[in-house]
Design goal:
The chain is α/β, with parallel strands linked by helices. Helix content is 40%, strand content 17%. Strands 1, 9, 10, 11, 12, 13 and 14 form a 7-stranded mixed sheet that branches. Strands 4-7-8 form a 3-stranded parallel sheet. A hairpin with a 2-residue loop joins strand 2 and strand 3. The longest helix has 19 residues. This is ABC transporter substrate-binding protein. Its main location: other. Keywords: Coiled coil, Signal, Transport.
Length: 349
Amino acid sequence: MVVISRGAFLKAAAATAAATILAGCSTGSNDESTSNSSVESGPYTVKHAFGETTFDSVPQKIAVVQFWQNPDALLSLGVVPVGAPIVSWGGNDNQSTPWFDKKLEELGGEQPTRYDETDGPNYEELAKLEPDAIFSPYGDMSQEIYDKLTEIAPVVPAPEGVGSWAASWQQTVEMAGKMLKKEDDAKKVIEDTEKQLKDKAAEYENLQGATFIAGAFDNKQNTFGAYTSSDARPRFFSLMGMELAPYIKEHEGGADSFFVNVSAEVIDQLEADAVWAWTETEEDIQKTKDNKLFAQMPALKNDAVVFESDKTFGLALSATSPLSLLWAVNETDVLDNMSKAVENTKKAA
């Protein structure tokens, strides 16, 4: 069994995805004259993982580094970023996401300028936008990257004590609220989102207290990679009232580890009422079902594995935000499928 850190895995994943794959910052539009005009101006400081950033007034043009969570957090507070990275994996024709576009339409805003971040922050394109601030609480942020970004504009990275790729969507929204001086609004967005998610989950009584595992089968290595409680996917299912399976709880590492590799020899110990498994293709699903080394997984025996290959949905659960989570529960059948999986386990008992 191997425990993999979040940073190591996501850097590799970003490289793999990259191989396959002028709007103002405003409230409801891209006209700077309307953006944050109702917020009292004056110097204020935002504390974060790299120290603190002081603003003389609320930034009007905000560029985003890392498309996971960060653009959505701004938009959930009614603020359209001046620039945001291209969504290359799981994105749509707008180089965006359906949940971002839906909220953008509600606000009457225009698409932000998009730039490629295949090789990391696009310093040149960011500088062209002449932003008042750069927002990036979630993603890969080192001291070197932070210092280079501050040469362009004041930066708001992860909260104090939070490392790369570790900020929850709630923390990202909170940081947006602090930067925009909309802390009460941020709190309300978080509370409203959590309430809507819990209300939706309550419609599925058999999910409450049911155990789950989220991960992916590797037919080449004959292993199963299970996400730990530090990862966004288990956090989502936990918010739906489910409980992470005991085996994963017992074998997960510290806060920085989010992925546990389980060999086929012990896969029979992965007891859970339902398993959510990411897969690249439909062909891979059949390979998994035909793999005799995986046959001892209880959920496979019970027809309680929910396979998912839609990249947009995969992104929604990975890059969690108020916008993506509500889209996932309202526009997809993930809860229906997990509910059926739990029922199949009960029938097999």
